[in-house]
Write a structure and sequence with these properties.
Helix 2 crosses helix 5, helix 3 crosses helix 5 and helix 8 runs antiparallel to helix 9. 61% of the residues lie in helices and 3% in strands. The chain is flat. The strands form two sheets. Strands 1-2 form a two-stranded antiparallel ribbon. Strands 3-4 form a two-stranded antiparallel sheet. The longest helix is centred in the middle third of the chain and has 48 residues. The chain is an all-alpha fold.
Amino acid sequence: MSEDNLEMHPLFFDWMRPSGIGTDRESLNRRWTTVNSLVTKGLGISQSDSLCQYVFGVLTDYSKLAWFQTAFKSEDVTFSMVEETNRVELLCLASVVLRLTLEVKDENAADLGNLILCIEANGFRKRDIFPELSSLAVEAIQSFVEEGRERPVVDSIPQVFTTANVKKITETLDDVTISITNNAVKNLAALTVKSIKEITTSCNESLSSLEEYIEIKDEEINILWWIINSYSELLEKPIDDVSDIEKSTVAGIELALLSANDVEPPSLESLLLKIGLKSETNLKLESLADIPEDILKSIVGDNSYVNPETTPYHLAIKYILSFGKVTWLEHFTQKTSIPVEEEVNALQWAVQFCRERLLIRLRQRQ
């Protein structure tokens, strides 16, 4: 969406209807101007985190929304900065910004999609407004990872010296042969420099595309070997030799470690089935405490980026190690409101661990 494209989205009226300003054209125009500006500029890390957490009802510090409220206040002085007074409108606006960002379907949209799915935590966290955000998040991820696997089109000989430039350089050389003038030399130098820059740009783009493609191919080979060997590097033993809960946890984390991108590889559930996970198996978060402590330590990784809002499954392991197997549940439920006694499908369990570990890796690099 270009910065100049201020044409209102045809569904914006419907999206804002729950807020009560759906019939106020002037207010709608002002809100849309701000929404368009935010989506065009793109969301930063903390901005994405605060909006996603707010939409899912897990944001505990409303001061983190100040940047969002201020953006709308600058366009409309009547916009309230008190969260309680216009909560529904804020939820609508936050959901719209997230939705439009997802619809771009680029790398940023894929990262946002992964963040949304991590916070949702296998459906344990619900929202009344924009329930389709989860499906849009999945689409954004799938679109990005599938596009990244297409073989790049690279010319065997970079077509950098365009016909027009070659002709101009030839004509300039003829001019120099007939009569050397400063202008002719300057023109020749300028055209040569331009062509060299084009060559450099073309080669860099080609090399970058090939590099990314090779990374993807390496990922596919590594995942294939992982499935064939059915061996856990984290546990240093065959995956079939461990319990169901250990298998699902480790399989999700190791797939994340093998991924070339910061979002899940295509057909994630199919890959997990091939490694031996069973769709009919159900697990409970409270059963994480049954995993031996040495194994938990080996799989938890860097837990400095673990938090209740975005990585609840990793938080459970962190709390087991921090508070012990007797009292961790109390701390966990207070922080996350996630019911630890409810069953989760083994595949979805592994998918959640995979997504969370990818998010942790992304945060480590940012």
